[in-house]
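Dear colleague,

Thank you for sharing your sequence with our group. We've completed the structure prediction you requested, and as agreed, I am returning the results in plain text so they can be pasted directly into your records. Please verify that the sequence below matches your submission; if there's any discrepancy, let me know and we will rerun it promptly.
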Amino acid sequence: MDDKSGRLKKRGVTEHLTKICKAIETELTKTDVNVDALEEMLEQLAVESNELKNLDSQIEEFVSETVRKEVKEVAEYTQKNYSGNFRRQKNTR
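Please find the predicted structure tokens below.
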């Protein structure tokens, strides 16, 4: 999964979680609370919460790999730059 699609999926799941939470709040403010509806919404909330956790870990893995690559590239570039500077200084002496 690339970072952009992961974030889009996460946004969708987050929006769905928000809708479920608002529906639960609405149900709880009623004088005649439908317990079955609440149980169903809580079950949906648990499923979506697990999906969100899964997406979070996938995004973290992707970002971690990307950061590792960038750190390696920076280290290689720094080493090449240092070697080039050292050679230039050596040749000017």
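Summary note from our side: The longest helix spans residues 35-92.

Kind regards,
the structure core
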